[in-house]
Structures are given as C-alpha cells and as structure tokens.
Amino acid sequence: MKKTVGYMAILMAISVAAASAIAGSCGSHTQTAAASCSSKDIVAVASGAGQFNTLVAAVKAAGLVDVLKGEGPFTVFAPTDEAFAKLPAGTVDELLKPENRDKLVAILKHHVVPGKVMAADVKPMAAKTAAGNELQLNVKDGKVLVASATVVKADIEASNGVIHVIDAVVIPKS
Length: 174
Fold this sequence. Notes:
Elements: H1 2-21, H2 31-38, H3 42-49, H4 53-62, H5 65-68, E1 74-79, H6 81-85, H7 91-95, H8 101-109, E2 112-114, E3 125-128, E4 134-140, E5 143-146, E6 149-158, E7 161-166
Parallel strand pairs: 1-7
Antiparallel strand pairs: 1-2, 3-4, 4-5, 5-6, 6-7
Helix pairs in contact: 1-3, 4-8
C-alpha cells in the first residue's frame, strides 16, 4: 500500500509539470480548459507538457508510472527540465542508472504528498511525503516555497491530484 501511494504521488508530480507546460489550455481559467486538464491523470499531463522530459524519464526509470496513474489524490511538486539542469553535472545520468534506482525513487517520492493540497491551503508546515519523510512548506511574500524551491505555477489539476511546478529539485536529507 505504501509503495502504491508513493508511486501515485510521483506520477502526480509528472502530471503537474506537464499541465504547466500546456499553458495555452491548462493555464487558462476557463471552465472548458479546467475540465479538459482535470480529465487527464498526472502522468498524462506531465508527458504532454514538453518541459518535464527529465522528470518523465526519471519516473519511467524508477518504475513509478503505473503508481502515478493511480487513483490518488496526490499533490506533486514537479521540477522542470531547467530545475534538473541546475543539479551538478552528471547527477541526472547517475540517478537514471539501474543500480541507483532506490535513490531515484526516494528523491521522486520526496516530491509527492498524499492528498490534494492547493496553493491557498499552504501554510508554514512540514508535510509528510510519499517517501515517509517531511517536506517543509512555507509562504513568503505571496510565494509558496517547498524546502529551497519556489512554486512557479500552482494548482494544475489532474484527475488524480494537483501539480505545482517548482524551480528546483528538492533532495531529501539522508
């Protein structure tokens, strides 16, 4: 059960990222766009966005696709390709190796919180992640902060949760 929740959370993160990339349709606030975006699961939203290629590849390498297509709800804090590019050179390639799968899974699950947390619901708190550790959430100057990352696009709804696009990869403390 815990593995299923973790995988679903990761997929949710991917969907959020994808939703952000589809700014033309999901970024608008029309009822039609909202219905269209919320009918797709997190993985589908992220895969179609175009700016979450690294996240989608990581979810596939971690074997979390089916989990993230699950029922949810999940809140996914989805790093963009640019966020992954900020990591030290070679980090992503190293994480994608089969022998590092456990570490990759732990990092991805750290970006997923079971349940649906909209940006307006965020207050200074420690949220329990799908990895079982805590993720510090805060609001400063009207911006939602996720550990050391900032939410750059919030409340992208998917059929199984919500995605918040973040500008950095959040690495759990060992």
